[in-house]
Design goal:
Structural class of chain A: mainly alpha
Number of strands of chain A: 0
Radius of gyration of chain B: 25 Å
Distance between the termini of chain A: 28 Å
Largest sheet of chain B: 6 strands, mixed
Oligomer: heterodimer
Shape of chain A: globular
Number of helices of chain B: 9
Shape of chain B: elongated
Distance between the termini of chain B: 37 Å
Chain lengths: ~290, ~350
């Protein structure tokens, strides 16, 4: 090959490869994308931190350590701490069923998992009010037993679970489908029971995808506003999550405090982004490992 | 362990993967399930393993009904076409897996596990790879590890699903010989699935030829090659020339050639197909008085002790190309060159009256 091509050289340097654009086009496109990102993402993000720290470090610290803010942080963490493990179990179970088995109504299940993506969060909240509210279907029964769901912590947790359902399952289904079920079959043929197969074979194979889904799930759980807003009732120190607290402070013209609390959410977003980038590479590796 | 399969059937939707299969596998036998894709051979293997459930019929291990026995309790070693090694475990842990997942009472202690895994890795000649991960191994190495892993649980039978299907030709040939030797050393009842005729004929004690969910023929490699039961087996095993003709009261007419076929004395003017192996074709320079077909030499492959000739019949009805094999000595005697005219006649043929060939053409 090398000997034959040396005798007839083509003027490759003169014409650019067909897949490459002119330099000025490349630069223009890059610049366009970067300025768009700066204008609509970077600038507002910096604005949040700028506003939060406008009146100095002490005011900032005060704003995020006052009792109502701390209660909001606690509630947000609680809701996430309940929603994420539940979605982990559900996500693994649903992805396992969809990726490894053929059954009737599989496409309906896949659509149902996507439902929270397509339904407006406000509608989600209203559905819960309709079911568990005082005028709702389960309302009288709950009142009789002295249980509160709407305008209380359980409602917030329920709404958070609902909006975060797709994240883990959606991440795992393509991964598990790509990996197939031969390794599980091999494990069972070697005498492993269901739990051993899940624990030693399936979970290690999907661990990075699982972590990736969990990170996204966590970001959504902590940042959720719409659905939680409807069921919360905005009781300060009791049913206020971080994002709801930001809204209350903002409506009270307490801008510095509002931006200070918002900066916590912005930090969470940045952290999520960093983790996501790290884990993404690992997930790609895990899918590739299948074919290597 | 002996295996008996009785009236096994399985449907996938409207597709009949297994159609009333009956088969007896003797203890210590190495059996090949051979057939084109979609013939049901892999399904049969998976039903024997317990990875798939049959719609009806029975599987007996050592004459005991094991149809509903879960795969865990069947004591089968299963080797997958794509190895299915646990990618998150080292080679050592892969082989040790079957021992480690045993209930506490039956689980060997770690020294015993160590000893047995090392022994198995030595058996497959890969003990130096113990600390590697599957993705660091070549295909042939992975398949040997998969075999060691299956053997670790001391199975009663070994089932291999296209074990060499994903490997290149050279490695495949090596592993074939190696599997044959391993089987002779261990004498474990083994069944392997393949679509490669040479592989089945070379390695197995007996070959089961399957087509469309049915067994076409069971026999030793010699039997199925020398006495194919029907046109499908003839064509699937390959290396055969096909002629169309007619048969009437013990005589066959093939491309104008009259041949005595006393075993078909009862045939009354039927269409027939005749199969002739390339080495059963006699090639002559000149017509020696006996009836023969005129043909032209199209291609000569003179590598090794056997010279392969590709011939084109002069007759319009004869097949597009006829393959003949003659010895090197005969080739020198005839002094053949491309384009020469020759006269050919079958020394031996198998005739199947009034049957359309189904399945693969070779």
């Amino acid at each position: 090959m090398a000997t034959s091509s040396s005798s007839q050289t083509f003027p490759v340097q003169l014409a650019a490869p067909v897949t490459q654009e002119q330099p000025w086009i490349r630069w223009t496109l890059t610049l366009l994308a970067l300025s768009f990102l700066s204008l609509f993402l970077l600038l507002p993000l910096m604005g949040v931190f700028f506003e939060a720290l406008k009146k100095g470090w002490d005011v900032y610290i005060d704003a995020i350590t006052e009792p109502d803010a701390l209660a909001a942080i606690r509630l947000t963490l609680t809701a996430a701490a309940i929603a994420i493990p539940l979605n982990l179990v559900f996500g693994i179970a649903a992805a396992w069923a969809i990726a490894k088995f053929e059954f009737y109504g599989k496409s309906i299940l896949i659509s149902l998992i996507d439902l929270p993506f397509s339904v407006s969060p406000v509608v989600t909240g209203l559905i819960y009010v309709l079911i568990f509210g005082l005028q709702g279907w389960a309302g009288p029964w709950l009142k009789e037993h002295d249980l509160a769901v709407i305008f209380a912590v359980p409602g917030i947790v329920l709404a958070t679970i609902f909006v975060t359902v797709p994240f883990i399952a959606r991440e795992l289904i393509p991964l598990m489908q790509a990996q197939g079920s031969e390794e599980e079959e091999a494990a069972i043929a070697l005498g492993a029971n269901g739990w051993q197969t899940l624990w030693y074979v399936t979970l290690p194979n999907i661990k990075w995808g699982l972590l990736y889904g969990t990170i996204l799930c966590n970001a959504r759980a902590m940042g959720e506003f719409g659905a939680v807003s409807v069921v919360s009732g905005h009781i300060r120190g009791l049913t206020n999550t971080l994002s709801l607290h930001v809204e209350i402070l903002y409506n009270e013209y307490n801008f510095v405090a509002a931006f200070a609390v918002a900066s916590l959410l912005a930090l969470l977003a940045l952290l999520t982004l960093a983790l996501k980038t790290l884990v993404e590479a690992k997930v790609a590796q895990q899918i590739r490992g299948n074919h290597s | 362990m002996s295996i008996e399969i009785c009236h096994l059937s399985k449907q996938f939707g409207s597709f009949s993967a297994l159609n009333n299969i009956n088969l007896k596998i003797n203890p210590g036998e190495l059996l090949a399930l051979l057939g084109p894709s979609g013939s049901g051979k892999t399904t049969l293997l998976r039903v024997i393993a317990g990875l798939e459930k049959a719609d009806s019929g029975q599987v007996l291990f050592n004459r005991k009904d094991s149809t509903d026995k879960p795969i865990r309790d069947r004591q089968v070693g299963f080797v997958f076409q794509h190895y299915a090694l646990f990618r998150n475990m080292t080679i050592f842990e892969n082989v040790a897996f079957g021992l480690r997942v045993r209930p506490k009472k039956q689980r060997p202690d770690s020294r015993e596990i160590n000893r047995r895994v090392t022994g198995l890795l030595q058996l497959v000649q890969l003990d130096w790879l113990a600390d590697r991960y599957p993705h660091q191994l070549s295909g042939g190495q992975r398949q040997r590890i998969a075999l060691a892993r299956a053997l670790a649980v001391e199975p009663g039978i070994l089932l291999l699903d296209e074990p060499f299907g994903a490997l290149d030709a050279k490695v495949r040939k090596e592993l074939r010989a190696w599997l044959r030797k391993l089987h002779e050393d261990m004498h474990m009842t083994s069944i392997f699935v393949t679509h490669d005729q040479d592989e089945a004929l070379e390695v197995a004690d007996r070959v089961v030829i399957m087509n469309r969910g049915c067994i076409e023929q069971v026999g030793t490699p010699g039997e199925v090659y020398e006495k194919p039961a029907n046109p499908f087996v003839y064509e699937f095993l390959g290396h055969v020339n096909l002629f169309h003709g007619r048969v009437h009261q013990g005589h066959a007419w093939i491309n104008g050639l009259k041949i005595d076929v006393p075993e078909h004395a009862g045939a009354e003017d039927l269409n027939a197909i005749a199969y002739v192996r390339p080495h059963d074709i006699e090639v002559n320079r000149i017509s020696n008085g006996e009836p023969a077909l005129a043909a032209r030499v199209v291609h000569i492959l003179a590598i090794g002790p056997v010279v392969r000739l590709e011939l084109a019949g002069k007759d319009k009805e004869s097949p597009d190309s006829i393959h003949a094999e003659i010895s090197k000595e005969r080739f020198r005697e005839l002094q053949l060159a491309r384009g020469d005219q020759v006269f050919i006649r079958p020394r031996r043929l198998d005739l199947f009256p009034d049957q359309a060939p189904d399945g693969l053409m070779h």
